Structures
1.
Amino acid sequence: MDWKLQIQKEFDNAERSRSRSNEGQARVCARRAAGIAIREYLTRRGRRIPSSSAYDLLNLLKEDALLPPDLKLVADHLTVRVTEAFKLPVEADLIAEARLLCDWLLNK
């Protein structure tokens, strides 16, 4: 499957999960969509993909000098651990933030 379709599928799954009040699964899907975009971004820049894990790639992306500070914050939000009550410790719409990150990465 082409990477664009994979990203769209993950965002569709994220929205479906959210509509069923499964915010944890929505976060996972948003993170996976970002991971696909990061792999494409790194490939386009001729860089080796060091991991298949979206979590690992998001942490790697935070160190990218070309990534604007607001998107480094998005990458940080996508990697933050939830509380014991399974809630994010920050106010963030991870689906919307992941979309912003993907758009920036894929338009570079």
2.
Amino acid sequence: MEAQAKARFLRTSPLKMRRVLNEIRGRNVEEALNYLHFSPKRSSDFIEKTMRSAVANFFEAYEGKKLTTRELFVKHVHVDGGPVLRRFRSMSMGRVGRVRRRTSHLTIVIEGKDKE
């Protein structure tokens, strides 16, 4: 039993998201949500919202199962790079410097352990 949620075109770089994702990988959902809620990183807000969506998807798909968030585990999380927004900023001596604003695609898969 598993469910997933995806968030696409998030305005943060994949490298910054991976720092937070490495902390929640393999934990149960309740511990992961507590970590994300109190983390000072900006990307933890995006990840928390997507994780809550995955939990809602799980409970919607498996209504008959009596599971709590303590019995759900983060099975798989990964982030891929999205399109890069290229902007230009004026630099010294009349030159132009390129600013690359990166975006991310986030996927979270959670799994429920059967009590049987």
3.
Amino acid sequence: MMTEHNFDAYAFSRQPDYDESLTRAEFAKAVPLKTVVIYCYDPRAVGIPQAVAAELGDEFPGQIVLDGHGNKAASTANLFEVVVAGGRAVDALRSVTVAQHLFGIENVVVVHHSHCGATSFTAEGINRAYRHEHGVDISGLYPPESVCISDYAESLQHDVSLLRASAGTPHSVNIYGYFYDIDKEQLTKVVEDTAAGNTGAAGGAR
């Protein structure tokens, strides 16, 4: 049940003096965003953003900055998290576009982790289960190559390519695909697609 609170008071676009260009500029100054990291909502994967921050030299989780009235006005973090099932990029495309528009970004990092639940089923299996258990056909709801993970190198290459092909991803952004071992808390770079056009597989771990 809705209360009588004036929620519009918290929406920038509903204020009498709203100016979209100025509001956007203020957002860009308030948060020094550099990197968006896309990873899985599995609680065991919680160390991924910190590992990526260490890999790229970013600050995470950073500190909240208060204004003169004690309101939370900004942050020193320059890495943002997009947490989705399996860390699949298809669910993060809009978030990347919005992050670029409001703050500007330099890097997008996709991370898939060991022993992920997304490796425990197939696209055919989840479609079949939904038909049997819920009486609905979801076979056309999502691209089958983005539903689960059967090969980590292939899934990371696919997601990096998907991000690069998106009109909402600026050409100037570097895109990386990493595998994360949740037990060793170790990142391994699998795919690198830089703004300079250097694309390919890469080894190494941190």
4.
Amino acid sequence: MIASIRKSLNGLKRDREHGSGWLTLQALEILKAASSASSAATSEKFLAAINQVIDALAEARPDMVSIANYALHFKGELESAGVTSKSPQRLRRAAFSIATRLIKVNEKAAASAASNAAKLIKKRHIVMTCSYSSAVCSALELARRGGIDFKVLAVESHYNKISYGAITAQRLGLSGISCRTVPDSQLRWHTARADIILLGADTISLHGWLINGAPSLELARVAKRKGRPLYTVCETAKFDVRGFLAGLRHAGPGFDMLPLELITGLVTERGTLQPDDVFKFSIEDLLGSTGDRPH
């Protein structure tokens, strides 16, 4: 494997500051870079080299299935291109083109999900969030640019000396959004003040739960008891339709598993879905037209 690609893969594995949306985009950039940097002399050697990168990406962050979903979708398209092309140069161009297109698909889906979530935010709302989500931050920024005046409470979400709430507040501050960080220990009291709660998601399981940074589970439980609407903002590429984590019983350190029954709705590029809609998705539904609804 090319040294620069290996370095990028290692960086992806170690990154604990960015959310799954940003890291998925980085995974696609790695595929794009690997496609253009290859000097393989035959189509067979090119496919072997790029498949090594694909496999490494699929295993890099198992709790973030959107990375694996995009990597395996890329693999399927590339294999189809390989059937009709015996030239490594043509195959390399095809791989570069596929990666470039999937980056656009990813960016469009993320932008649409954020736009749909921004519509949930009303004037004078107090919006509460937990962990760090680029999708949630994008939605808040869109609402602010749309002239909506609101405030944000960001739970500190401490893990390994990192405050993800502080990262959220720093980003939102650049857009002039009022954001106060809330100590994890005061989560319950502050939830009563919130009008709406927005969370990101690393994975949505078809077995009835989602993964997000701690203490999302406690926040969701308190919101349910206090009757506060709680939405997750994510692209459908985060749906684990392949069952990568079907046997998972406990989230990794710093993460929570939330039953979908605690979620009011899932705001995606296809609109706001009800938790039961998740079970209607299949592999064929992923990375297709953003206007399609699940069967």
